[in-house]
Structure formats: C-alpha cells, structure tokens
Design goal:
It is built from 10 helices and 6 strands, in the order αβααβααααβααβββα. By secondary structure, it is an alpha+beta fold. The strands form 2 sheets. It has a 4-stranded antiparallel β-sheet. The chain starts with a helix and ends with a helix. The model is unreliable at 266-281 (pLDDT under 50). This is Helicase C-terminal domain-containing protein. It comes from marine sediment metagenome.
C-alpha cells in the first residue's frame, strides 16, 4: 500500500472522531479482507460485505469492525438528547444499522457466492446448536443469561442460535448462596475476627455448646465459626481464662471447653474439663 502508517492512523482517527459522526469529512472506508482483523470504526450506519466467506465467523468478524459495544455512543447520546427535548423517553434511543451482504448472480440466478452464503449458514447452524447446549450446561448459565437473552432478539435468528431466544439452564437457579470459592480465597480475615472473639469469650466462659456459640456469634456463618474453633485447636493457641491461667481449647460431643494441659496422648478422659470448670459445675 502507498498509504503510510501515520496516514493510515490519521484517516481512522478522523473517521472515528466526534466531528465526523455524521460523515461530514469521511463518509466511507473501503477495506480488504485484512481489515476485518485490525480496525474499529465508529458511528457506522451502513455495512457492505462485497462477497461471502466459507464460514459465518469471518463475516461476523467483518461486521463487528463497525458494531461494537461503544461504537455508536456519539449517535446514541445525540438521539437521547433529542428525545429528552421532545419530552420522550431517552431509553428508547437507538441507531439503525443496515448490513448488506452482496453476491454476484448469473442469468439463472445461481452463483458460487450464493452457494458459499448457504454453506456457511448450514455450518453456522450446526455450530450454534452446540453453542446453545454449552450455554445451557455452563456453570455460569444464570449469571450470563440476561446478557445472552435480550428483549430485542428475534426467535430463530442467528443471535438466538437459530432457536427460541429464551432457554432454560440445566442446573436450576440455586436457592442458597454458594460460598465454596469465596471461602477458599477470602475467609482468612473473617476467621481471624472469629478467633479474636472466641479468645474474648473464653476469658469469661470455661465451656460452651456450639449452638450457644452460634447464637452469640450470629453475624458469622456457622462454617466460619467452625473454622475459627478448628484453628485455635489445631494451632494449640494459648488462651487465658478468667483467672489468668493458660489453657488450650478442646472440643468433645458438641461442647467446646478449656483445658489447662494440652493433651499429647490419647489417655484423656472424654469430656474432661479444666479444673476450674469442674469446680464451677
């Protein structure tokens, strides 16, 4: 090409500028097949594909040079302002984009171009069928549903995988919050809070049942409380009782209690509390 890189960049910058949103300076950009992989165009209202490809993905890629998430912000903003001025709902603002797929025809009305368009659609339908199944079976089906199913979509169009737009997720919508991944990554700080609360509680109490502990620490999930108790026991954390003595936390049969000596053997008496606990019982 005789166009230098700097000239190429300047042309695109001018075409995509706010001042050129209605084509005052540059009305059209003509590109080779290479264009579909490397540029973004703004405020385009007509797209002309001069020939087919062997798959729909290539055509979609070419069309997507001019139809992007923020490609028509200038025109949409302008249309919203017009609707507000007329006392209408600005949320109704939209921009019409006309896409033309051209084909060469002979006298009989047949051509290689038409055959390629038809073949690419047949392949796209098969691919879309698999894509629909993947959407329905995906672990984030519910999360992305509103993004995949839009009120403006048309049943049996390519946007809807050549099927009814609304679909059901294989897994039903959960009725509870799944903290599995969250707990693996982010519970450390919360568990430490529970540990500090437990240390304070056992400065007063010598033993307590889990159910009562859950009620006292009801702002935390039971799993977090269990993790806090487990951490204190496994780390052999020294805890100070109400009399100032060092104790260790133990658990047996749903009761958490303090014990003065940390049991190193299996000879401990089941449910054996510290002496101070025994005197108070």
């Amino acid at each position: 090409s005789e166009t230098s890189d700097s000239e190429y960049s300047s042309i695109l910058e001018a075409f995509n500028s706010f001042e050129n949103r209605h084509g005052e300076y540059i009305k059209a950009v003509i590109g080779s097949p290479k264009t579909r992989d490397g540029i973004n165009l703004a405020n385009v209202i007509q797209i002309h594909l001069l020939g087919p490809d062997w798959n729909q993905a290539a055509s979609y890629q070419a069309e997507s040079r001019a139809v992007r998430s923020t490609s028509h912000v200038d025109l949409i903003t302008e249309e919203r302002a017009r609707l507000i001025e007329e006392g209408k709902n600005p949320d109704d603002a939209f921009v019409d984009i006309n896409i033309y797929r051209h084909a060469s025809l002979n006298n009989s009305g047949k051509s290689i171009d038409l055959m390629m368009y038809q073949l690419s659609e047949v392949k796209d339908r098969k691919i879309s069928h698999v894509m629909r199944l993947i959407k329905q079976c995906s672990t984030d089906c519910q999360i992305n549903y509103n993004r995949n199913v839009r009120s403006t979509d048309i049943d049996y169009s390519s946007n809807c995988d050549y099927d009814i737009c609304k679909y059901d997720c294989v897994d039903p919508l959960p009725e509870y919050i799944d903290y599995t991944s969250y707990d693996v990554l982010y519970t450390g700080k919360i568990v430490n809070e529970v540990v500090n609360r437990l240390i304070d509680i056992f400065k007063i109490e010598f033993h307590i049942k889990f159910n009562k502990l859950y009620n006292i620490l009801n702002k935390y999930r039971k799993k977090i409380i269990d993790l806090g108790v487990t951490q204190l026991i496994q780390n052999k954390t020294e805890m100070i009782d109400r009399y100032g003595y060092i104790n260790y936390l133990r658990e047996d049969s749903g009761v958490i209690f303090l014990r003065k000596d940390y049991p190193l053997e299996t000879k401990e008496i089941k449910g054996g509390y510290s002496l101070s606990v025994y005197n108070e019982s």
